[in-house]
Amino acid sequence: MARVTVEDCIDKVDNRFELVLLASHRARQISQGAPITVDRDKDKNPVVALREIADETLSPGDLKEDLIHSLQKHVEVDEPEQDSAAIAAAAASIKSDDEDELPETLTFDQMSEDELLAGIEGLVPPEKSDDY
């Protein structure tokens, strides 16, 4: 039985903490019935997982992606975007007959800074009550 150490795996995975995460994730997969890629030799699941990482029978990048995917609670699905022609056709169907009454460009009321300050100074604070 060959002894697996961190030094055997550290050249495959640079960070020791990441190595622990990947090996523990792989050990959990093995305990759930995932097929192993090296001989077991009466080793426990964490040792088998480290041996798989050291022998490069599993890619650390694939293990990392699988670990991230297993920890995600909400997976976003990429939906195809509508093409511009479909969007333009939908916008054209929404236009109503009252289109002539609407201005070409919408403008909002604009207020100068002095007008804003004068309006704020004219506000009266609400009276205090015992209700709140």
Order of helices and strands: HHHHHH
**Mean pLDDT metric:** 80
Number of strands: 0
Task: Assign an overall shape.
Answer: elongated
Instruction: Kindly state the percentage of residues in helix.
Output: 40-55%
SSE-based structural type: mainly alpha
Number of helices: 6
Largest sheet: none
Name the beta content range. under 5%
Radius of gyration (Å): 32 Å
What is the end-to-end distance? 74 Å
**Are there runs of 5+ residues with pLDDT below 50, and where?**
none
Describe this structure in words.
By secondary structure, this protein is mainly alpha-helical. It has six helices and no strands. It has helices at residues 6-10, 16-31, 45-54, 60-71, 84-94, 113-121. The model has no long low-confidence stretch (mean pLDDT 80).
Provide a brief overview of the structure:
The chain contains six helices and no strands.
Give descriptors for this structure.
single chain; 132 residues; mainly alpha; 6 helices; 0% strand
Blueprint (SSEs and pairs):
Layout: H1 6-10, H2 16-31, H3 45-54, H4 60-71, H5 84-94, H6 113-121
